[in-house]
Amino acid sequence: MKKQDIVIVGSGCAGLFAALQFPADKRITMITKEVIEHSDSFLAQGGICVLKTPEDYQSFFDDTLKAGHYENRKESVDIMIRSSRDTIRELIGYGVDFARAEDGTLLYTREGAHSKPRILYHEDETGKEITSRLLSQVRSARPNVQIIENTAMVDLICQGDTCRGVVIRRADGSYDTISADYTMLACGGIGGLYKHSTNYPQLTGDGLAVCMEHGVALENINYVQIHPTTLYTKKPGRSFLISESVRGEGALLYNAKGERFANELMPRDLLTEAIRAQMANDGTDFVWEDLRPIGEEEIKTHFPNIYARCLEEGYDVTKECIPVTPAQHYFMGGIHVDEESKTTMEHLYAIGETACNGVHGKNRLASNSLLESLVFAKRAALHIIEHYTPQNGPLPAVDFSAYEPAQALAARRKDAILSEIRRLNQHEHQ
Ligand SMILES: Cc1cc2nc3c(=O)[nH]c(=O)nc-3n(C[C@H](O)[C@H](O)[C@H](O)COP(=O)(O)OP(=O)(O)OC[C@H]3O[C@@H](n4cnc5c(N)ncnc54)[C@H](O)[C@@H]3O)c2cc1C
Description:
It contains eleven helices and 16 strands.
């Protein structure tokens, strides 16, 4: 394929927002493993945090650090919070329709471990609203951005300590290279490596795997978040999330006897522990969640997607409790990046859930992920623009047979990532 200025791997909110920042004369190719709507960004339910008023700064900062067990990089948290209002303004400029009161002012909801409501939302499909608007903006206003679906990055092309582009595998199994001045990894989390996860199954940490193989630094890849409440079912497939914002709006958790057993607004990791302990006590695979305290009208207007999905599964949440159980949900660790989202390899950036800029510490505060992805995607793009240096000269030779058979490569990489996560966890508990 013809040389590109920038290649972006992944088409979630991070990849799309980055693409929108580049000037029209930059030739950009974005590749994505499946169809473009299949990204976790489309699944985000609860909302996106924002600095509601300048007075909320300290409380927002403290909540983020407390949830992250004070292992967060404070400078990154500061950047995220201070950039939040401009980011939301930009989203509104692209047509994102956040919930508003009748007088037009923005409405804010609350989730676990937030001491105040500071989360903007669009029903219970905030991610779909944001990401589809970004996508339509890219499609309608950025002829310089080419999107190639059903195409996977299988490797980085490295020359010494510089990234020269990526190796790709197309849907028909053929291989090619995309050389580019800059490569941005925006390939999401690692839920596809787990049996029970809320993530899309194609999110298998491919960015991590190739970085591990090329000696690009990773950070805290054992910091994996389990969401306390997903709808319990015996059916296989992606776990359906019951957003934390239902608990923020009053939903309660009960044990097998119908008694409350925990503060429903604890940080995710602590609530997950409490639920697992309760399930072990009760000898069950789930606990009960009661959405009725929210009220029928609020359930149907604020959470129509959760209401409809539970009905499909045979539960009317306005009348009865639902069984919920923890599942893998989010990845706080990732490819180590600095404040400009630059990795330890030259001309290689990482953004979104695949990157670790330290915002989330050991545990992510609810609704900080979309915001962090957008803020640091923009910083990456602006840094590339400011320091733009073209790369010329022949590419190193690539042996496509090294990526065959594809399933064996995927299995090897899965094993490498999960073994490293286990190793780090054991080390931590020694
Ligand atoms: C059910 C659910 C609810 C959530 N709710 C919220 C919420 O309310 N608020 C919040 O802030 N966060 C929420 N999150 C987290 C948030 O949605 C994600 O962290 C965020 O969207 C990540 O964006 P991203 O662009 O990094 O990755 P994604 O949106 O996951 O996109 C990754 C992209 O990379 C592609 N890709 C992967 N590997 C390759 C490869 N090898 N080659 C090519 N392409 C590749 C994928 O196909 C995909 O297009 C939620 C997540 C889930 C799963």
